[in-house]
């Protein structure tokens, strides 16, 4: 028996290291003030939860609850490099919401991405040539609002506190997809 156990241990130790790649946080879903370090912390904490959401094994409510519990415990036990719950939780919630919505409405995401590639084509080219990402994102938002309602005027409709803006109804996925396209354009510029 001792010889058999030794063979099993040797077999296990000689197996190649196999690691599962957990789902990542899509950068287009993160709060604009989130750092790459904070995003990595959340990926490490909830990657397996995101896998379950993508596999349609967890709905938004359970996934969000599990993620918040892990993040809260990590913050309390000082395992988040000083980042707090108020930034880490929104990173997780946005990613869960995105993956869940993508699962439920894949056609909408595909069609909207194609529509936005056309609408934002000139802006994407400018970002590929070095235009500031934040400026481009602000312009993209205005272009999306104008596409939803041609009478939209940011000079009069986006004045004061955000809650008083008079903006046309637009699916939040449109802004997420616009950020994705802008991120891709910016990455093209950075790789030059």
Question: Brief overview, please?
Answer:
The protein is 68% helix and 0% strand. The chain is mainly α. Helix 2 runs antiparallel to helix 3.
Q: Can you count the beta strands?
A: 0
Main beta sheet, described? none
Order of helices and strands: HHHHHHHHH
> Rounded to an integer, what's the Rg over CA atoms?
21 Å
Estimate percent helicity.
55-70%
- Strand residue percentage: under 5%
Low-confidence stretches: 4-21
Structural class by sheet pairing and helices = mainly alpha
- Number of DSSP helical runs: 9
Task: Estimate the mean pLDDT confidence.
Answer: 90
Distance between the termini: 61 Å
Tell the overall outline: globular
Quickly list its features:
mainly alpha
Secondary-structure map:
Layout: H1 2-14, H2 36-54, H3 60-76, H4 85-104, H5 106-119, H6 121-128, H7 133-148, H8 154-157, H9 172-190
Helix pairs in contact: 2-3, 2-4, 3-4, 5-9, 6-7, 6-9, 7-9
Architecture overview:
With 192 residues, the chain is mainly alpha-helical. Mean pLDDT is 90; it is low at 4-21. The longest helix is centred in the middle third of the chain and has 20 residues, at 85-104. The protein is globular and about 50 Å long. The protein starts with a helix and ends with a helix. The protein has helices at residues 2-14, 36-54, 60-76, 85-104, 106-119, 121-128, 133-148, 154-157, 172-190. Helix 2 (36-54) packs antiparallel against helix 3. The protein is built from 9 helices and no strands.
């Amino acid at each position: 028996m001792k010889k058999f156990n030794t063979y099993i241990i040797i077999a296990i130790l000689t197996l190649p290291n196999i690691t599962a790649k957990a789902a990542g946080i899509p950068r287009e879903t993160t709060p604009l003030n989130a750092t790459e370090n904070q995003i990595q912390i959340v990926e490490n904490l909830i990657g397996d939860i995101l896998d379950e959401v993508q596999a349609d094994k967890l709905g938004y409510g359970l996934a969000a609850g599990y993620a918040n519990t892990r993040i809260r415990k990590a913050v309390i036990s000082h395992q988040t490099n000083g980042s707090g719950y108020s930034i880490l939780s929104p990173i997780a919630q946005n990613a869960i919401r995105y993956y869940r919505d993508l699962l439920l409405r894949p056609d909408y995401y595909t069609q909207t991405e194609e529509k936005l590639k056309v609408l934002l084509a000139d802006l994407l080219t400018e970002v590929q040539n070095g235009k500031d990402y934040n400026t481009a994102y602000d312009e993209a938002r205005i272009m999306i609002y104008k596409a939803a309602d041609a009478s939209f005027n940011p000079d009069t409709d986006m004045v004061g506190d955000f809650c008083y803006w008079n903006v046309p109804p637009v699916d939040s996925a449109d802004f997420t997809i616009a950020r994705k396209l802008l991120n891709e354009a910016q990455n093209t510029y950075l790789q030059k």
